[in-house]
Amino acid sequence: MPEKYSPPVFNQKTFNCPRCGAFAAQDWRRLFYWDANGNNQLAHDHGFADQLQGTPEGVYYEGWPWVASMCAGCDDMALWIDERLVFPTTDALADEVPEPNPDMPVRVIGLYREAAAVLPHSRRAAAALCRAALEALAKHLTQDLDSASNWTAGSII
After folding, report:
1. Tell me: the pLDDT tens digits for 137-148?
2. Residue 141, C-beta contacts closer than 8 angstroms, at least 6 positions apart
3. CA separation for the pair 14, 156 (Å, rounded)
4. Strands of 14-16's sheet, edge to edge?
5. With a threshold of 0.85, does the pTM exceed it?
6. Are the CB atoms for 75 and 29 separated by under 8 Å?
7. Among 28, 26, 52, 30, CA closest to 39
8. Torsion angle, CA of 40/44/46/50, rounded to 10 degrees?
9. Are strands 66-71 and 23-30 parallel, antiparallel or unpaired?
10. pLDDT value of residue 114
11. In this model, does residue 132 exceed pLDDT 60?
12. What are the sequence ranges of the domains in the chain?
């Protein structure tokens, strides 16, 4: 039985890595960059300079906007800004979607794969594409019936 997918969540200790897809522990790190004078520009530009003095390097600071999670499974990092995953996009979520049945019509397979591709970015768009795929499949399967011409997913609800 496949393990349950646990999506990436900011500051959680474990989830499915957006890089490798494995369920693994995550190590959280603040991100910095320094200017030519050795000043931490992110801290100065956003008012964190005084708050970070004396904080050990590599320790997550509450409210710090630029953070990386490092996967214990693959040692790759994911970038988070303002508690939102920005890189990589959660393609691992799309990878959790089963392959379409090869017996489906080509048009339905295309809609199904498009829904899987947009799932990490917009669940609403994925749901709309799944509905379109379902309607296309129903029309294909009932093409010889008179009632098939007006079939929609809403008509069975």
Report:
1. 988 888 876 654
2. none
3. 40
4. 14-16, 23-30, 66-71, 77-81, 84-87
5. no
6. no
7. 52
8. 100
9. antiparallel
10. 87
11. yes
12. 14-89, 97-143
